Amino acid sequence: MTVDHKVRVHRSDEPLERADQLAWKIAAVASDQVAPPAEVADMVVNRLIDNAGVATASLNRGPVTAARTQALRHPGPGDRPGAVVFGTRERVSPEWAAWANGVAVRELDFHDTYLAADYSHPGDNIPPLLAVAQHTGRDGAALTRAIAVAYEIQVALVTGISLHKHKIDHVAHLGPSVAAGIGSLLELPTEVIHQAVQQALHTTTATRQSRKGEISSWKAFAPAFAGKVAIEAVDRAMLGEGAPSPIYEGEDSVIAWMLDGPDAAYTVPLPAPGEAPRGILSTYTKEHSAEYQSQALIDLARRLGPRIREAGGPGRVRSIVIATSHHTHYVIGSGAGDPQKYDPQASRETLDHSVPYIFAAALLDGGFHHERSYPPQRVADPELVTLWRSITTVEDPEWTRRYHSSDPAEKAFGGAVTVTFDDGSELRDEIAVADAHPLGARPFGRDEYVGKFRGLADGLVSEAEQQRFLDVALALPTLSAEQLGELTVVPLDLKAAPGRGLF
């Protein structure tokens, strides 16, 4: 059972008891110490494997090598073991392990998602929680519970509070969820978690320019930064330091000045006392390496490709219009107004947020791949560019309504596509959810998560190393503190960043 918590701005002279503050209620969930049910623990294992797969595939990409190089220059204190840098067996200070590992997980835009009033990639909670668990000697059961709590808080915040409406980046929901998860992991008092949640929110609010126009590698660093900052916030709170308060409801708070303003009213659903965290079961992973709102449309493109070839091929296509939700149209569609979304010279980060590009490539190639769909020579192919520039999106109120529906059977992240050929004839089809979605044509289960990991690790990691990691990961809820250090994947080759920075 969940409880709907009403959140609004309070004047400084208007009493608001600490127990009535959203940050306290979040902290109370974290300190409740309710064990997750079996199906939640199983899903935590799935997402740990999912994260490892996408992190492995990105280990030698530029942003990841840079973050890893930075982390390896920050060894942990001698009286504690530190946390493992993914791709190695070396240990560093936990906030820096969270930094390096968070970038590796996020780089390919290929792990899990939850979409509601706002956007999120809740798997971003896992790197900082794993790092703190390794550093502080917590076991697999504690880490499993902590991950479930962090997912619960992020799902609740994303369900109730829209950040993107005011161009605030979605990692502002990640900082508090990580802080809450660490509080659960370490069994901290509610008061300490309360201060850490507030500090984490205060220090992770940033604009969405990181996902607008020419998108840079910072898109991968942003959640890693939030995880690193949240660890530091917990450390300060454990040392007795306070935070701006009330961070959500105050007269000069995040809500009052960054979101809907002094008249704002939000509803955030959190578990009732004694209720187990189940939010992770509402989240979903990706089959394709691109923004989640393109997942269903990639599957639709795979379905439409043969039909277009039967009609004479892509050369006969005059236009393709994708009717979809407000979010899809304005964030990754032509409604964003970003010319970069149609530019063959655009960055990879921009392309994976361009549904016109993604749909065109998937139509021509019969799918979408984390490597083969992004090389410059593929992006600049004349046939692809012509098809790409024929694609536009429009908002359809019905798809927007379904996007925001609270009914799982009705909630949708897809759209309806109209292909118009050079003779005026049309081909139409639509899709509501991705094939891999729990309600899709081929829902992901344990076998699919393991298969995704193996596919991403193929050629990069030996079969023996893949199996060693999977044996450990699959036993997560029963692992000892020492065994948590084995949750890394060491590839056959690991590059270093060119040159040296400040550290």
Automatic annotation (TrEMBL):
Signal peptide: none annotated. It holds the Pfam family MmgE_PrpD_C. Residues 288-476 form the MmgE/PrpD C-terminal domain. Residues 21-265 form the MmgE/PrpD N-terminal domain. Belongs to the PrpD family. GO terms for molecular function: lyase activity. InterPro entries: MmgE/PrpD_sf (IPR036148), MmgE/PrpD_sf_1 (IPR042183), MmgE/PrpD_sf_2 (IPR042188), MmgE_PrpD (IPR005656), MmgE_PrpD_C (IPR045337), MmgE_PrpD_N (IPR045336). This is MmgE/PrpD family protein.
